[in-house]
Design brief:
Shape: elongated
CATH architecture of the largest domain: 2-Layer Sandwich
Strand content: 15-25%
Structural class: alpha+beta
Bound molecules: adenosine-5'-diphosphate, magnesium ion
Mean pLDDT: 79
Distance between the termini: 98 Å
Low-confidence stretches: 331-429
């Protein structure tokens, strides 16, 4: 018989291998040590780091501490006080339970532990370097535990080399710290980096904790969310839509006080904002789930933050409903969506798809032609509106007669135009409107009084029009009788040149020379007078930041043109223009935000007006 070749790995080697999984960077050490402090029932936890954690990570807690034997045992692999047998795995109420973290950390760093239990006179000091106990002795120390981890990966140069800059590592440390601090507002936390206090967070409630972390201003930006069912309880705060950010920002889900990532729940939450925020902007959220641990599976990869609920779709819908409720309750949602008929609208993103013909419901009892309504449809005077209001309401709320009824009627509507007519009539805005201070348009719908920002409304209408044309692949360009010449710096010309394809797409025809450009054609919507202003703004934006993809470039151009072209605040509008703008605005799928993300209108309902009159 040949000699057997299988041997058990020496502990320090096994620990180093395990460390590969548990300890990826300083932030992973921070997470493990702070979680241990939380599991030890500390209510004050201090994190001290040097050089982004590359030089030192120290966690000091005032928890239950360990006796001499446990202190030594805690560095053994699979040593844990948190579960005793397999059935405990289904009822986990602690952060850790694998008993791997300290052993792994001690295998790849210089570790010092000081710990003392409440009623012991002396505590224990242990120093370990690369799994070897270098020293162990009694020590006078306070109740609780302090663990410091120095020179991470000192014995694995390849790993050490792959650590990122101090700033990058510190960003990860910071994020890990915040996840825990936000999960436990009732515990005091402090973070010190290279001698500076980064956070000092007293015990508080959740909203105060969020304030203390993100600054007092965040309070106005959040709305509470809460929902309770037998299966799950949801609480926390979600961002008001108008504060949604271009960058993915503060987005936190916690399940039983454990931070988790969940694209699925993220989607649920975002879908509650549909129509409230622009594409590519992100609401903040701090959402806390409480659920019986038997319904979740956290027994997965140690460093992963995913979690599995046994009934994911239920969590999805409860969250979505809770969020919608919260947005509606605080009057942030377009609770009046003007009975939008989404199937009639063509949001520009979808126009590449095959068009679906509009669905029209028929109310056989309704005759819109009584009193010759269509013949009068151009008389957009307030009186006309007032007189016709009820009829229009009926038309709008109920349904509309089919094309057959249009036939043979004494109206200007030709068969070819029936679809368009139906479309615009359906979307016709119904109440009388007037301009206020040459800045706002005032009207109402149902019990809601609307005050619309004319400039932003018009920007959105123009923006959508251009994007829609672009997506349909049609360039609507006009040759200029007198091409516009613009003197520019060579680097500015370069910036523009790089975007020439997109300039063409949106309708510009530009010749470039060394320090001038000649603009021969502009988009149809644009007047030649604005050309220079538009180009200057385009250059200004491109020199700040080059958009990442084609769509972003085109959006930027459309946004700038819309901004320059839109009616300004202070501009007097004719009644027809007021009516048309309102009508155009509410023909869009969503009218909450201007292309730059500003609120377009405010509304007041009877209740709110009554309240103000109390
Ligand atoms: P786990 O947390 O999975 O049990 P660890 O390796 O992180 O595994 O810790 C091992 C054990 O050491 C824990 O079960 C706990 O008993 C003890 N321990 C670790 N850190 C602390 C601390 N800060 N205070 C008290 N006990 C601790
Ligand atoms: Mg642990």
């Amino acid at each position: 018989m040949q000699a057997s070749r299988i041997k058990l790995l020496p502990d320090h080697v096994a620990n180093q291998i395990a460390a590969g999984e548990v300890v990826q960077r300083p932030a992973s050490v921070v997470k493990e040590l702070m979680e241990n402090a939380l599991d030890a029932q500390a209510d004050e936890i201090k994190l001290i780091v040097k050089d982004g954690g590359k030089a030192l990570i120290q966690v000091i807690d005032n928890g239950i501490g360990m006796n001499e034997i446990d202190a030594r045992m805690s560095f053994e692999r699979h040593a844990t006080s948190k579960i005793a047998d397999a059935k405990d795995l289904f009822q986990i109420n602690t952060k850790g339970f694998r008993g791997e973290a300290l052993a792994s950390i001690a295998a790849v760093a210089h570790v010092e532990l000081k710990t003392k239990q409440e009623n012991s006179e002396l505590g224990t000091y242990i120093r370990i370097e690369g799994s070897k106990v270098v020293s162990q002795e009694p020590i006078a120390t306070q109740k609780g535990t302090s663990i410091s981890v120095k020179n991470l990966f000192f014995n694995i140069p390849a790993r050490r080399k792959f650590l990122k800059s101090i700033q990058v590592e510190m960003r990860h440390v910071n994020e890990e710290f915040l996840r825990l601090a936000l999960a436990h507002p009732d515990i005091a936390f402090k973070l010190i980096h290279n001698g500076n206090i980064v956070y000092q967070l007293p015990k508080s409630n959740l909203l105060q904790r969020i304030n203390n972390v993100f600054g007092a201003k965040i309070k106005e930006k959040l709305a509470p969310v809460s929902e309770e069912t037998d299966y799950i309880k949801i609480s926390g705060f979600i961002g008001k839509p108008e504060f949604a950010k271009r960058k993915r920002g503060e987005q936190y889900f916690f399940v039983n006080k454990r931070f988790i990532k969940s694209p699925y729940l993220h989607h649920a939450l975002n879908s509650a904002y549909e129509g409230l925020i622009k594409d590519k902007s992100y609401p903040s959220y701090f959402v806390y789930f409480e659920i019986d641990p038997k319904h979740v599976d956290i027994n997965i990869h140690p460093t992963k933050t995913e979690i599995k609920f046994d009934d994911e779709p239920t969590v999805y819908s409860i969250l979505k409903v809770a969020a919608k409720h919260s947005l509606g309750q605080f009057n942030l949602s377009p609770s009046m969506d003007f009975d939008a008929k989404p199937e009639l609208e063509v949001p520009y993103e979808y126009t590449k798809k095959t068009p679906v013909s509009p669905k029209i419901n028929v109310n056989p009892d309704f005759n819109p032609f009584e009193e010759d309504m269509f013949a009068q449809k151009n008389k957009f005077s307030s009186k006309y509106y007032e007189k016709q209001l009820d009829k229009w309401e009926a038309l709008h709320h109920d349904t509309i007669e089919m094309a057959s009824q249009l036939d043979g009627n004494d109206t200007a509507v030709s068969n070819d135009n029936i679809q368009t007519e139906l479309h615009s009539q359906l979307n016709a805005f119904l109440a009388p409107a007037f301009q206020f201070q040459n800045k706002f348009l005032v009207t109402y719908k149902g019990d809601k009084l609307l005050i619309i920002h004319q400039n932003r409304a018009h920007q959105l209408v123009l923006f959508n029009e251009m994007m829609q044309q672009l997506q349909q692949g049609a360039t609507h360009s006009q040759q200029l009788m007198f091409p516009v010449e613009l003197q520019l710096q060579p680097d500015e010309i370069n910036l523009l040149k790089q975007q020439d394809d997109y300039l063409k797409k949106i309708g510009y025809d530009v010749n470039f020379s060394e320090n001038t450009i000649l603009i021969n054609a502009v988009p149809l919507q644009q007047k030649s007078a604005e050309t220079i202003a538009v180009f200057q703004e385009i250059i200004r934006n491109l020199s700040l930041d080059i958009p990442v993809d084609e769509n972003a470039v085109l959006e930027l151009f459309a946004q700038i043109i819309a901004e320059k072209l839109a009616v300004k605040s202070g501009q007097k509008l004719q009644q027809e223009e007021v009516d048309k703008l309102i009508n155009d605005l509410f023909s869009l799928k969503s009218q909450m935000f201007s292309p730059k993300g500003k609120r377009i209108f405010v509304n007041l309902d009877t209740q709110e007006i009554d309240n103000k009159l109390m």
